[in-house]
């Protein structure tokens, strides 16, 4: 009812809905995008030819489809299968540098002005690289792009929930050398089990001590309790997805009172069956209750989307006009892990 009222009220005030062209032209910020889920198919084929990566003929022929998750009603676990080929190809410095550059290039071409790109260094050590070399290659690709295009960026290092805390600590130790020089934060990603936070208390406490910011995938397909644990046990600064926030009142109150940002990824949430339809996405009530949230792709290739398209979806769903967009933009800048000079640069864009 409130949504309908807002809609009628805004129309009555000569309110102008946003078009895809409007949104394409707007400066945009993305805080939740996975490098390995955002690769160009052609580049994967090229890299597989020039490196020792064995793709079968069937994989080469079907590459476009194999990199995309089904549109609807799968699960997070099946969604994650689309990362198999990217991970196999990203096992040397040159390909990691190239793919990182290309994601920033693609984002800049739709007027994304700041991108926090995330990846798990521990997944790229299967052919001899160590985690430091992986991180350096990604930083190099990002810096090549930010020099060439009007875009700024930082990297978030993912630790995998399905791997050990020891491996997470290794990522945190290696990434420390690059903290605030390309790396700003750590994340916990991968399949979401109930109570995963207890396994990573030492790792995330070490990360906080070193000065990392923390964002955690939580309440994506499991429970609001996981969101509460991520805040109370792991001291999360932001929450990835947070779809299930509605089922834990304590988590909801903390998120609202502390203005903790939810990184919302509409298309991905349909594909992982986190929500059954866009219309039933709880982001509508979160937005109307003025929770702090931003819109993201999650994965440009796996979800076959762009940030422009995700904001088109969100602007319809949330009935956003230009002022609403600008407000979300500035909230997103404020909740980003960028330093103050980059934040000021970004705020001057609107
Ligand atoms: Zn994600």
Description of the structure:
- This protein is α/β, with parallel strands linked by helices.
- Helices cover 47% and strands 14% of the residues.
- It is built from 18 helices and eight strands.
- It has helices at 2-12, 20-25, 41-50, 57-61, 63-66, 76-79, 84-89, 93-108, 131-148, 165-175, 201-210, 224-232, 249-258, 266-271, 283-288, 307-317, 322-335, 340-347, and strands at 28-34, 112-119, 152-160, 183-189, 213-218, 238-241, 261-264, 293-295.
- Strands 1-2-3-4-5-6-7-8 form an eight-stranded parallel β-sheet, sandwiched between helices.
- Strand 5, helix 12 and strand 6 (238-241) form a beta-alpha-beta unit.
- Helix 8 (93-108) packs parallel to helix 9 and helix 12 (224-232) crosses helix 13 (249-258).
- The radius of gyration is 19 Å and the shape is globular.
- The model has no long low-confidence stretch (mean pLDDT 94).
- Zinc ion (ZN) is lined by residues 32, 34, 189, 217, 240, 298.
Task: Provide a concise account of the structure shown.
It contains 18 helices and 8 strands. With 350 residues, it is of the alpha/beta class.
Query: Main sheet, how many strands, which sense, barrel?
Result: 8 strands, parallel
The total strand number stands at 8
Terminal Cα span: 32 Å
- Order of helix and strand elements from N to C terminus: HHEHHHHHHEHEHEHEHEHEHHEHHH
Structural class: alpha/beta
Mean pLDDT: 94
Fraction of residues in β-strands? 5-15%
Strand order of the largest sheet: 1-2-3-4-5-6-7-8
Q: Low-confidence segments, ≥5 residues, pLDDT <50?
A: none
Put simply, the count of helices is: 18
Write out the distinct hetero groups bound to the structure.
zinc ion
Rg from C-alpha positions?
19 Å
The helix fraction, in percent, is 40-55%
Which geometry do the CA atoms define? globular
């Amino acid at each position: 009812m409130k949504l309908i009222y807002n809609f009628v009220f805004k129309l009555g005030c000569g309110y102008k809905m946003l078009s895809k062209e409007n949104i394409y032209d707007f400066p945009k910020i993305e805080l939740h995008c996975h490098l390995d889920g955002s690769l160009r198919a052609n580049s994967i084929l090229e890299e597989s030819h020039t490196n020792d990566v064995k793709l079968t003929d069937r994989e080469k022929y079907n590459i476009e489809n194999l990199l995309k998750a089904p549109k609807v009603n799968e699960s997070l676990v099946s969604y994650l299968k689309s990362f198999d080929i990217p991970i196999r190809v990203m096992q040397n410095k040159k390909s990691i540098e190239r793919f990182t550059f290309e994601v920033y290039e693609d984002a800049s071409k739709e007027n994304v002005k700041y991108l926090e790109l995330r990846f798990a260094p521990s997944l790229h050590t299967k052919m001899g690289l160590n985690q430091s070399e992986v991180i350096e290659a990604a930083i190099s690709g990002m810096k090549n792009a930010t020099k060439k295009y009007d875009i700024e960026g930082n990297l978030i290092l993912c630790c995998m929930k399905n791997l050990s805390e020891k491996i997470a600590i290794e990522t945190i130790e290696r990434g420390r050398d690059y903290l605030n020089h390309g790396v700003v934060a750590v994340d916990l990603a991968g399949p979401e089990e109930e109570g995963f936070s207890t396994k990573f208390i030492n790792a995330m406490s070490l990360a906080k001590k070193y000065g990392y910011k923390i964002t955690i995938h939580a309440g994506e397909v499991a429970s609001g309790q996981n969101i509460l644990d991520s805040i109370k046990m792991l001291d999360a600064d932001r929450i990835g997805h947070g779809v299930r926030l509605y089922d834990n009142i304590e988590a909801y109150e903390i998120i609202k009172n502390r203005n903790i940002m939810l990184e919302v990824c509409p298309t991905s949430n349909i594909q992982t069956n986190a929500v059954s339809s866009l219309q039933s996405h709880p982001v509508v009530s979160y937005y109307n209750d003025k929770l702090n949230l931003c819109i993201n792709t999650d994965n440009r290739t796996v979800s076959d989307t762009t940030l422009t398209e995700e904001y088109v979806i969100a602007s319809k769903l949330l009935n956003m006009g230009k002022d609403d967009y600008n407000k979300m933009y500035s909230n997103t800048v404020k909740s980003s892990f960028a330093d103050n000079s980059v934040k000021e640069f970004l705020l001057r864009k609107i």
